[in-house]
Amino acid sequence: MTALVKNKSRGIVVAQFVSAAYVAMAGLTSVDVSGEKSKTAETVTLDGPVYETKDPTGYATPPSLKLSGFYDPAHATYTNFAPLIGAPTTTNFKVTYTDAAPTSAVYSGVGFGLGKKASPDKMLMADIEIEVSGAPS
Amino acid sequence: MKCKFLNDTDTEHGLLSPNHQELTKTRVRKHAVTLLDRVEHFFPAGTILDHPHAYKFVNFGMATPADDECAAACTPLTPSQRAALETDYRAASLGIHDAEDLKLFGAGVIAGYEKLPNGQTAYLPGPNWEKWNAEQKAAKAKTDSEL
What we know:
The structure holds two protein chains of two kinds.
Chain A: E1 13-18, E2 21-24, E3 28-34, E4 37-42, E5 54-61, E6 64-70, H1 76-81, H2 83-86, E7 91-96, E8 103-117, E9 125-132
Antiparallel strand pairs in A: 1-2, 1-7, 3-6, 4-5, 6-9, 7-8, 8-9
Chain B: E1 2-5, E2 9-11, H1 18-21, E3 25-31, E4 37-43, E5 48-50, H2 54-60, E6 63-65, H3 68-73, H4 79-93, H5 99-106, E7 110-115, E8 121-125, H6 129-146
Antiparallel strand pairs in B: 1-5, 1-6, 2-4, 3-4, 7-8
């Protein structure tokens, strides 16, 4: 075991596979890979203990990727992503973290969402959501 | 049509045709979940890719046209617009999103981030790093002398 290293967020890269190569997404302000969770089933019986019991089912929910960034509809980040909403096709997204290794993972995106936010005290922002299928490779 | 990649460009070996697979090289990374070694494929800088969508990579700022067909299909840009686009893409590919760091990268002061074993990141010096540092020191000395 090694001592815990506090890695900075600065330098994280998220890239979308387009045609033949990964294309880095620009202007990101946050990257959230969350929701990955093993599934459980309740195993409470009428003659069981007071506290309910659960067992692992052997299945797991893959994470979702939630990205926020500055929105520019003409930029490759959005011209590559936006068409997936109306014509969804399985698309790989690669996240490269900032640790010294560095670690990385490829997520198979199958569901896609894009929201835009305008407010008087902020720049035009976008929220991207990618629903993932299967294990990260 | 053909394009030429400006920098090392990650790809997915299994999604490529056999003739494109032959163009890739490999590097070893760690899997973010399992921490096992994983082999990643990339097109080395300078690789010429013959692909119907080659023009897209030029339009993204990742590549330059490598034949007339590709050049004709690309969005026309002035040399300064093209340079700005290529710098913008290079920054994104290095994970540079911070506004101040983007300015430093655009000015050639930094070349990216160096990931240190203690979790910190340091600037990788760019071609204008020494000059910028000298200017910063001179500005600080002037301010100190005025106080």
